[in-house]
Each structure stands twice: as C-alpha cells, then as structure tokens.
Amino acid sequence: MKILFSFVLTIILSQHTFAQDINLDSLLSTELEAALFLDSIEIEVGLIDIIDPLFIPASESPELIADRLSCIQGDIRLKYNDRIHAFINYFTIKDRDYTRMVLSRKDLYFPLFEKYLAKYGLPDELKYLAIVESGLNPRAVSRARAVGLWQFMSATGRHFGLHHDWYVDDRMDPEKSTEAACKYLSELYGMFNDWELALAAYNSGPGNVRKAIRRSGYKKDFWEIFQYLPRETRSYLPQFIAIMYTLNYSDKHNLFETPEQPLVAFDTLSVNQFLHFETFANLTGAKMEDMLKLNPSVLRKAIPETGRQYIIRVPLTAKENLMMHRISILDSASRVGKEELEALAKNTLGSTYGRELVSYRVRSGDVLGKIAERHRVRVDDIKNWNNLSSNTIRIGQPLKIWVLPSSDDYTPSVAASPQQVGPKVNAMILPPDAKIYTVQPGDTLWDISRKFEGLTIEKIKTLNNLKSTQLKPGQKLIVG
After folding, report:
1. Model confidence at 162, in pLDDT bands (50, 70, 90)?
2. Average confidence (pLDDT) over 307-322
3. Among this protein's residues, is 133 annotated catalytic?
4. From the candidates 133, 179, 342, 356, which is the catalytic residue?
C-alpha cells in the first residue's frame, strides 16, 4: 500500500464515530502494530489504496493487452504483436511525460476532430492520429517541414485548400487543417479500401504504399507488405495503435491528466486589411495570450494586407468592445507596426513575401553563388526555399527561386505564361466581356478553380494558354 502512515492516521481520526473509542497510545506503540491496525480497519472505514503519482506499474502481459485492444476495436483493426507492445511500453513506461502532455491537450482538440470525422463519415478513432503526427501541437513543424496538428507538407496542404505565406499558415489552423485531413483520409481510403493501408499512405504517400504492394507480390495487408514500406511507415501504424490503447487505458498505468485551460469564449471577425494583434488587444481589452491561442495560424502577430479575406477568432468580450468603437479600433490596429513587419518580411531568410516564383534548372558550370547573384537573392535563401543542407547541386536539378518583381530576369505581365521569362513579354489581349481574376500570393490553379462554379484547372489553362500550373502574384487570369 503506497500511502503515508500519518495521512492514513488523519483519515482514521476523521471517522469520529469510529475513532473516539480507540486507545491510540496502546494500539499504535510500534510500526508493526500500526500496520496491523490499518489492515484490520481498512474495510470498516472504507479506505482506498492511494497510489503515488510517480509510481510506474510494470508492463502488462501480452494476453491482457490483446484483450484490452479487442474491447476498443472499431472500424480500424487493432492487431496485437511485439512491435505494438514495445510502443505501448514506450508510452506507458519510458516517456510518461509525453503521454501526460497529450492527455492534458486532448480535450482541447478531440471534440473538434470528432465533429469533422462525423461530418465526413470517418472512423472516430482517427482522432488519435493527430497525436502520432504532432503531439496535439497546432504549431508543430517537422524536420521535413510538415506543419500543424495533421502535419501537412506545403504541396499537399495547398491541394486541400490550406494557404500559407510569411504571415499566416492555414496548416496551423485547427479547424481548417482538420477538415483538410478528413478530405485527405477519405481520398486515401477510397484508393486502398483498407484503413491500415490508408494510414500508411497518409504517412509516406500513396506512391510508396503502391510500390510496397507491388514488391510484396500484390499483397493487400499492411503486415504482409510491412518489410517493403519505408522504415518510418513501419512504425507508424504500431504507434497509432499503441497511443490509442494508452489513452483508453491510461488509468490502468497510473497516468492521469491535468487538462489545459480551455480556450476563452470567442467570436469571429472578418479582416481584409493589416491588423496588429497587440494594438487590437490593447484597445479591446483582450489578452494577447488569448489572441495567440485562438489564432495559432497567425505567425507574426498580425494579419497582412494582401487583398485576401481573413477570418480570425477574437475573445467574445473583445468583440463586444469592438462593436462600440469599430472604426477607430480597426484604423489604429491597421497602422501600428505595418512598415516594420513588411521590412522584416522582405529580409527574413527564406521569406517569399512580395516575391514571385521562378523555376530554374541547374546548368553546366552553375554554382549556388552564381545563381544567387544572377537572381539578386542570397545563397541561404535558395537553400532554404529548396531544403538544401549543403551547397552541392547537380546539372538538371530544378530550383525554386523567389525574385523581387524589379528583377531584370523576371518581368510580369498580364496573363503571361510562367515560362515567358524576360523583359519583352507581350500582354495578352483580353475579350471585352471577360471575367478576370487577379492571382494572389500563394494561389494555385486548384484554389482559383474552386472560387468559380464550373471552372476547372484545365479550363483555366485553356482560356489563358498556360503551359504549366505555375502562377505569379498579380497575374491576370480569364476565368469566364
């Protein structure tokens, strides 16, 4: 029994009707007598065994874990094996601090996950996937630059409508990223018709899973193609099953949560101009900490002026104060810090703010210094944009380079094809009744096609004689 003797004695004495007739001087003369005394009265006074929160129970038997997993079986098969047992031991014994952390965060995000999983008709247990991905940290960034609760890479995020720039990253928005993850998981399940394979594809991409299926002789079971999957993916499903087990049976392993503070009550505010968070908070009586917690996708504590419409969350009390002095508050918040942040945005390493994308293919004799000088950028910028760990490049290697509009190597013009690089690009003559759209920073053809009914990527390319899917901010496109 892991309990302090003095604490037990206090409990006993509090049972007045029972303790008043006890002669403690004679009964508690030795520790042995005390122990015998406690054993004899435990049932009568209803004492419970209080376990030290630092106590780590021993690893459970394989039979017991397998039985517990069968009790929480849902739409996704929860197989038991030694690899899964090893991860269960990791979460319940070796790294208990990590497990306590995700336990404390789950109530912040699980209701949101459950809402969208139900909306898309997906298994409820997929909510545990975000723990494997990010530890329920909406601002998590991996070494591979996957971002957010659901760890979207840039291209995949854009495909599912998650815009990101120097100021704002939708991949860090819990609501937007969760809906995008549901769409992606639905798409992957449609490809493989098997949740284990869909989860493997979420981790390594559908191409790697198809490759493993082919190499295995066209087996369609995760454990049968296991050895042909990338190393990280082999651990991915076992981790998912282990964390699902751990959170469902945390009490059996003496793991108890201390929930994080819930988000304050909030309302939404539509913004299409620069908005400095600190100024807004000061003028509305909001706490800056609440503004940041409600808007984890806002990277610079400000909303940029890009022509896009941004929806931000503000504490309910701040929204009420805003209603009384809306014009003056928004005007003040649109002025403070704007020039400083824009200057920082343009000079931060790897920033694409105010720049336009040029695709460059390495030629014979090229070195990074020469390419950087030609495009008037820094070597470290090119390395950052292309995730290069060294200065080594190879002939034919494609590079993304973000140039300033004033660069001699790149002169934008109306609806010019991205392949038309140079100072003498002729503008396209637009029909008088054409419906025109101006490309915003971060836009893709997929984004634009979704803005107009009946518009497809191929139709945009045909209307504008585009030879690729690359776009430039400020470019004019015929959309109807």
Report:
1. very high
2. 91
3. yes
4. 133
